[in-house]
Design a protein that fits this description.
By secondary structure, this protein is mostly helical. Helix content is 85%, strand content 0%. The N and C termini lie far apart (38 Å).
Length: 109
């Protein structure tokens, strides 16, 4: 899943938002990692809800085998427009996180 996260998640935007908060660097890193973990769970949910039962098993086997290229190829075969779907959901999460950061900044003032 890391290849999907790195392909669609613009963590620079989140990092920039976190940099604007008055928190320690290690806290920023933990929050960024939490955002990546959350996106991974969302991607997994989105993918699994679009696959047939037999394909879900095959996907999980591909994911467990660790072959990023094989997993991406499999998803392209089984889910039409998978890149657009994942890009859209990554952007939604990014916007949610940035909105939360803005709310926190307002609370600091």
């Amino acid at each position: 899943m890391n290849i999907l996260i790195s392909a669609f998640f613009k963590k620079e935007n989140i990092k920039s938002g976190l940099d604007s908060l008055d928190i320690q660097e290690n806290e920023k890193e933990k929050l960024l990692q939490t955002a990546e973990d959350l996106l991974q769970l969302r991607f997994l949910h989105i993918i699994l809800e679009r696959l047939d039962e037999k394909d879900k098993e095959l996907f999980l086997e591909q994911l467990d085998a660790g072959s990023a290229e094989g997993t991406v190829s499999f998803l392209r075969e089984k889910i039409e427009g998978v890149e657009n779907i994942l890009r859209e959901h990554a952007k939604i999460l990014e916007n949610e996180i940035l909105q939360d950061i803005r709310s926190l900044k307002k609370g600091e003032k």
